[in-house]
Amino acid sequence: MTPTLSVGILFQPQISFFLDGVFRFLEKTCTGEQKVSYKDGLIEFNGQLFPKITLTPADPEHTFILKDVVIGIGFHWERKEDQRFKGSLEFIVEEEKITAVNILPIDTYLISVIASEMSATSSLELLKAHAVISRSWLLSQIEKRQAIEISEAEYQSNTQTETEWIRWWDREDHQNFDVCADDHCQRYQGITRPSQSLEVVSRAVLDTAGEVLTYHDAICDARYSKCCGGVFEEFQTCWEPVQYPYLTKGYDGKEEELPSPLPDLTQEGAAEVWIRSAPPAFCNTQDQTILAQVLNTYDQETTQFYRWSVSYTTEELSDLIFRRIGMDFGTISDLIPLERGTSGRITRLKVVGSKKTMTLGKELLIRKALSESHLYSSAFVVAKTENGFTLTGAGWGHGVGLCQIGAAVMAATGRDYRTILAHYFIGSRITKHY
Question: For 126-169, what is each residue's pLDDT tens digit?
Fold first, then answer.
C-alpha cells in the first residue's frame, strides 16, 4: 500500500483558496472560493475559530487551488503563482501565521515533484531515475525525523561564535509536516505542471513503484542539484558532519575524457585551475534540446551554469553581505577560502572587513551572503579588481548526488535509469520498499 505524506505549501497570516469540487470539514461540505485568517492563536474560517482545519475531498478527483503560492523562495527566480493540488487540505497555526498543508499519497506527490523539478517532457529514463531518488530522499527524511523524535536529541544546524558562523538548512526545520514544497526540500507545485504531460511522468513513477536506493539495507539520503560542475560533492560539505559512502567524490563524465587523473579540488591551486577551465563532463552541455527537458521555463533564464562569473564593487559587496545576512563587516577587503569540498565548493570562507572578520559556512550560507538571491554555487575563486571583486564559479546548486543536467545527457545518450543511478550514488542498489 502506498504511504501518505504531508507537505507544507504556504505560510501566511491569511490564505485564499478555491475548492474545485466538494470537500468535507466536520459535518459540513464546502466548495468554491474560500479564505482563512490567523486570529488570536486560532484559524478563522467562515466566521468561526478553529485550532486546526482539515478539508477532505468527497471524490479523489476533486482538487483545490491555493492562491499566491511563493516559489523559488530566496532564489533569483522567486515569484508567486496560483497552484492546483490533489488530496486533502489542512491548515495549522505556526508562529502567528497559518500554514497550508497538502496530505496525499507519496506517488501522487512524486508525479508532481518530477515535473516541478524538471520539464515533464524529459526522457523516460531520466524521469525514472528522478522518481527513485525523490522517493528515496523523501522516505529517508521521514525516517530521520522519526529517529530524532524518538531519541529526543537536539538537532543543531547553527553554530555561531565571535569568529565563525556555521549554518546549514535541511528538512529538520519542519516539525509539523514531512517536507516543504520549495527548493529547500523538493520542488512541489501540485498538478499545475504535470497535467501538461501526465502520461509520461505517471509512467515513470508507476514503472518504478516502491523502488528506492539503499546502501547496506538503509534507504539512501538521495540528494540532487542542477549542475555539479564536473565533480560530485560530499554530503558533509553542505549538511551535518555525516559521511555517506554513496555520496562521495566522483567525476561526472567518461573517465577517458579526462586529460589526467581527477585533481584534488580540496586544494586551492587545483580548485582554481579546474574552476577557471571548462573540462569535459556530462553536465558541460549547451544542447538546448536536453536543457529544455531538464529546466522549466524560469530555470532556463539561467544561461551560464557550468562556468559563470559575477563582479561586485567593494561598496556593492559590503552592502550586499550586510543586507543578506544582517552582519556589518564594514568595508570588505578580502574573501579567503579556508576549506573546500571534493567538487571545489567552499565550505568555510573568511570574510575580512574594516569592522569585523568572520568565517562563514557551510555552502548555502556563503551563497546567500554573496548574492541578491543565492550564488549559483560555492565552487568559486576570488580575484580582486581595481574597484572590487570578481567571483568565477562552477556549477549550479550544492553538487551532491545526482546532477540533473548530467543525468539528462546520460539518458539522451542511451543510458538507462539504473546505470544513471549507479553513476551518481556509488555502491548503492535499487530495492523494492513497498
Answer: 999 999 999 999 999 888 877 777 776 677 889 999 999 999 98
CA dihedral 159, 338, 234, 128 (to 10 degrees): 90
Query: Residue 172 has what pLDDT?
Result: 56
Mean pLDDT score across all residues of the chain: 91
DSSP readout, 124-160? HHHHHHHHHHHHHHHHHHHHHHHHHHHHTPPP--EEE
Provide Rg for the chain, Cα atoms.
22
List of long-range contacts for 26-34, beta carbons under 8 Å, 24+ apart: 29/58, 30/55
Task: Order across the sheet with 380-384: list the strands.
Answer: 307-313, 388-394, 380-384
Least confident range from 120-124, 197-201, 390-394: namely: 197-201
**Model confidence, pTM:** 0.86
- The number of residues in the chain equals 434
- In this structure, the strands spanning 4-12 and 179-180 are parallel
Tens digits of residue pLDDT in 284-341: 999 988 888 887 655 555 568 999 999 999 999 999 999 999 999 999 999 999 999 9
71: confidence class by pLDDT, cuts 50, 70, 90: confident
User: Which strand (E) or helix (H) includes residue 307?
Assistant: strand 307-313
Q: With beta carbons less than 8 A apart as the criterion, state whether 65 and 48 touch.
A: no
Which position has the grid cell 567525476?
251
- Return the residue matching grid coordinates 485564499: 16
Query: In sequence order, what E strands does 329-379 have?
Result: 332-340, 346-353, 357-361
Residue with cell 584534488: 264
Please state, as a whole number, how many other Cβ atoms lie within 10 Å of the Cβ of residue 78. 13
Task: Please give the angle made by the CA atoms of 318, 321 and 326, to the nearest 5 degrees.
Answer: 120
- DSSP-derived secondary structure for 192-220: TTGGGGHHHHHHHHHHTTTEEEEETTEEP
